[in-house]
Design a protein that fits this description.
A hairpin with a 2-residue loop joins strand 9 and strand 10. The chain is of the alpha+beta class and 418 residues long. Strands 5-6-8-7-9-10 form a 6-stranded antiparallel beta sheet. It has a 5-stranded mixed beta sheet with strand order 12-13-15-16-19. Strands 1, 2, 3 and 4 form a 4-stranded antiparallel beta sheet that branches. It folds into 4 domains: 67 residues, no CATH class; 72 residues, no CATH class; 111 residues, no CATH class; 142 residues, no CATH class. It has 13 helices and 19 strands. The longest helix has 20 residues.
C-alpha cells in the first residue's frame, strides 16, 4: 500500500513556518487584538498558505481594519449592500461592480468586509456574497411592495436597506405584467419601481427622496432588459429624457464633490462643476477654469474660461481641448470619475482653436443677465459665481458652434440670426 500511496498522494514537504515565526517576520505583535482565535485554524494551513495568510493579516492591519469576527458567527450575519462605485473605490473595502455606477459590498456582523477577511477566514468571495444574498432573500420574505398614491411601488423593509433588494429582482417580478420595469435606488432605504407609463411619477419620487436626509445611493433610473439592468436609455423627444440626463449628471456631480473634499490644496484648484441649459432646455455639464493656479478639470461637456483678472473668455467644448497641443492634462491618481490636472492656461490665440459654445462677450452677458444686475459689467465673476449660475440652469447657448461627436444628436437649437 505504501508503494501505491506515492502515486495517489502528494505530500507537501516544504517546512511550514510556525505562527510565531510568520508574525515575527512581518513585525506583527503576538498580542494583536482579535488574533488569538485564528491560531488554531492557522495550524491546519500548508507552508505557502501560511505565508499568504499572514500577508493578508499584514494588509488588514495596514488598512486600519479590525480583525474579522469568527467565521462561525459571521456566516450567519452577512448582508449585501449597494453603494455608488466611486464610494466603493474610495473606501477600499472588498467590492464587486454590479451595474453601471453601482457596486455591491458585504457587511459581516454589521461591519463592511475588507478583502483580507476572506483570506483570514479561508473563504472565497463568491461563496460569501452568495451566502449574504441568500440571507437577504430570507429576510425579505413576506414583505410585499407598497403601492403609493402616485401609482409607483416602493419597497418597505424594516432593516432600512431597501436598496440592497436591487440584488433580488425576483421580489417584484410580475408587478407590471407585460410592461417594462424601471427601478431606482436614490437612497439606502429606498427602492422605487414603476412601469413606463408612470415614469414622470417615478422622477417625482426620486426627487422627493433626494430632498430628505439619508445616505444617497444613485438617482439614475435603471431599466430591466432581459433580466439585466441598464441605465434607462431614454432618447429625445421622450418626455423623461431630460430628467434622466439631469439625474445622471447629479450622480456624477456627487462623485466629483466627494473628490473635491479630499484633494490636496497644493495639487491645484478644483474647477467648479455646473450645468448649462441650451435653448431647447437640454442640460450639458460645464467646468469653470480660472487662470492663476493649476486646474483639476472634471470630464464635462463644456469648459468655461475666466482670466486671472476675472474677465470671461468664453465657453468651449471640452472634447476639443487636445487641439491645444501645448497643454497636456495629467490624470489625477484618485478613485472615482476621471479628472485631469493642467498646469498652464490657454492663451487667446489657443482658445481660437477650440469649438466655441459661447464667446467671452456672450458669457459675460449670460452671467450678467443671470445675476439680474444693472447693465454695467459685473465685478469680476468668480468661478463659484459662474458655477452657481450654471447649476441654476440660467445660462443658455447663443453661439454658432459646431458640435463635436460626443454631443451630436443633442441639438442646441438655431444659433444664427435668422
Amino acid at each position: 500500500m505504501a508503494f501505491f500511496s506515492r502515486f495517489f498522494s502528494s505530500q507537501d514537504r516544504t517546512p511550514a513556518p510556525s505562527f510565531d515565526e510568520v508574525l515575527a517576520a512581518r513585525g506583527i505583535p503576538l498580542d494583536t487584538p482579535g488574533l488569538a482565535p485564528f491560531k488554531s485554524e492557522f495550524l491546519h494551513l500548508k507552508a505557502e498558505e501560511r505565508n499568504h495568510w499572514v500577508d493578508a493579516l499584514a494588509e488588514n492591519l495596514a488598512g486600519g481594519w479590525s480583525m474579522p469576527p469568527d467565521w462561525l458567527d459571521a456566516q450567519y450575519d452577512l448582508v449585501p449592500e449597494v453603494v455608488p462605485a466611486w464610494q466603493a473605490e474610495r473606501d477600499g473595502f472588498w467590492f464587486r461592480h454590479h451595474l453601471e455606477g453601482l457596486a455591491v459590498r458585504v457587511l459581516a456582523c454589521g461591519q463592511v468586509m475588507p478583502a483580507p477577511w476572506l483570506v483570514l477566514w479561508g473563504m472565497g468571495a463568491d461563496d460569501v456574497l452568495e451566502r449574504a444574498i441568500d440571507q437577504l432573500r430570507e429576510r425579505s420574505k413576506d414583505q410585499p411592495f407598497q403601492r403609493l398614491p402616485s401609482g409607483i411601488y416602493q419597497g418597505v423593509f424594516k432593516d432600512g436597506r431597501a436598496s440592497a433588494r436591487l440584488l433580488l429582482p425576483e421580489l417584484w417580478q410580475g408587478l407590471f405584467a407585460g410592461q417594462n420595469t424601471f427601478v431606482a435606488v436614490p437612497a439606502d432605504d429606498s427602492l422605487l419601481l414603476a412601469p413606463q407609463v408612470l415614469l414622470p411619477k417615478l422622477v417625482e419620487g426620486i426627487t422627493a427622496r433626494l430632498a430628505n436626509p439619508g445616505r444617497r445611493v444613485m438617482a439614475t433610473i435603471y431599466q430591466q432588459v432581459d433580466g439585466h439592468f441598464l441605465p434607462a436609455n431614454l432618447q429625445d423627444p421622450h418626455p423623461i429624457a431630460q430628467p434622466q440626463r439631469e439625474l445622471r449628471q447629479g450622480d456624477l456631480a456627487e462623485a466629483y464633490r466627494a473628490q473635491e473634499a479630499v484633494l490636496p490644496a497644493d495639487l491645484g484648484r478644483c474647477a467648479p462643476l455646473g450645468m448649462v441649459r441650451t435653448q431647447q432646455g437640454r442640460s450639458v455639464s460645464v467646468a469653470t477654469w480660472q487662470e492663476g493656479a493649476p486646474a483639476l478639470l472634471p470630464e464635462t461637456d463644456l469648459v468655461a474660461f475666466i482670466a486671472a483678472s476675472g474677465k470671461p473668455l468664453g465657453i468651449y467644448f471640452r472634447q476639443t481641448l487636445p487641439r491645444i497641443s501645448e497643454l497636456h492634462g495629467t490624470p489625477v491618481d484618485l478613485w472615482g470619475p476621471r479628472r485631469l490636472r493642467y498646469e498652464g492656461f490657454p492663451t487667446p490665440a489657443q482658445l481660437e482653436r477650440l469649438e466655441c459654445f459661447a464667446s467671452g462677450e456672450q458669457m459675460a452677458s449670460l452671467i450678467k443677465s443671470a445675476q439680474g444686475g444693472p447693465q454695467t459689467p459685473p465685478a469680476r465673476p468668480s468661478t463659484a459665481a459662474l458655477a452657481n449660475q450654471a447649476a441654476s440652469g440660467a445660462l443658455s447657448s447663443q453661439a454658432s458652434s459646431p458640435v463635436p461627436a460626443h454631443l451630436r444628436g443633442l441639438s442646441l437649437g438655431r444659433q444664427d440670426k435668422d
